[in-house]
Specification:
The chain has 276 residues and is α+β, with helices and mostly antiparallel strands. The chain binds N-oxalylglycine and manganese (II) ion. N-oxalylglycine binds next to β9, β18 and β19.
């Protein structure tokens, strides 16, 4: 029997009793509804090969090709949809992205015009401690925003910076700049209505190099700082400590996530898909 067990935090639920390699349509419908409701799902004790991970992800929609990694390298051999998040270095070359440092709060790929609606992260190797991943609810952020801030951000667009990834690394092929007004990126409305739930949420992407269209830089920074403080308060978050075989699926529209650093001498290997 598959069950949905909410985390008790502001977002997130665990799905118990599911083998994602053989989920019938009825069970998938329950999982899909739980994902829309709880925004992040944890499914433990899975034994997925790369093809299984891709097949499960495809049930939600088309998959993006993985972004090029910081090293300029792309793709898992034979699986261009898979992005590798790892600190492991083999033959002098990192096998994945984000290293072992902190990854700051972000939405995946929001510097693009059509970011994925969901991401799936599957744990192949994890350190004994460290490298926890936290999520925050952007529905909760909108709900918690004071009226004066709501009025100021309701109709603005934010530039989502395409210079740096969440690990602070410069993206492949980009010349870094510190001026958010001229940095590459995409403008998105700061307040959005979720097409699957009809609920209003904030859409912030990442703080570094963010810029509110049309405002003097200092005003934009001050307003963004206030909004970000509300959005990332502890009461709106849930933190996951990984085990091998954990799959976490998040709604990339109405949540953000961050990762703690971990001991660089240990191994952490995750495979990710991005769903349109
Ligand atoms: C990601 C990501 C964090 C982590 O894969 O998009 O931000 O915990 N990963 O590795
Ligand atoms: Mn991410």
């Amino acid at each position: 029997m598959m069950t949905v067990v909410p985390t008790g935090a502001a977002l997130g639920a665990e799905i118990r009793g599911a083998d994602l390699r053989q989920l019938d349509d009825a069970a998938f419908a329950v999982l899909h509804t739980a994902w829309l409701t709880h925004q992040v799902l944890l499914i433990r004790d899975q034994a997925l090969g790369d093809a299984d991970l891709i097949a499960f992800s495809r049930r939600f929609g088309e998959l993006d090709l993985a972004p090029i990694q910081e090293s300029g390298r792309r793709f898992v051999e034979g699986h261009p949809e898979l992005y590798v998040v790892s600190n492991v270095v083999e033959g002098g070359e990192p096998i994945g992205s984000l290293g072992s440092g902190e990854a700051v709060w972000h939405t995946d790929m929001s510097y693009q015009p059509q970011p994925p609606k969901a991401s799936v992260l599957y744990a192949l190797e994890v350190p004994l401690s460290g490298g926890d991943t936290s999520f925050c609810t952007m529905y909760g952020a909108w709900d918690a925003l004071p009226d004066d801030l709501r009025a100021r951000v309701r109709d603005v667009r934010v530039k989502h910076d395409g210079t740096y990834n969440s690990g602070g690394y410069v993206r492949h092929g980009v010349t870094p700049t510190g001026d958010p007004r001229t940095a590459p990126g995409t403008l998105h409305p700061l307040v959005q209505v979720h097409p699957g739930t009809g609920r209003t949420h904030l859409y912030l992407g990442r703080r570094r190099n963010a810029y509110i269209e049309g405002l003097p830089l200092e005003e934009s920074d001050a307003l963004l700082d206030r909004v970000w403080e509300v959005a990332t308060t502890d009461g709106l978050t849930w933190t996951h400590a990984w085990r091998v075989g954990d799959l976490v699926l998040w709604d990339n529209r109405c949540t953000m996530h961050r990762r703690d650093s971990f001991d660089p001498s240990t191994r952490r290997v995750m495979h990710r898909t991005q769903i349109q």
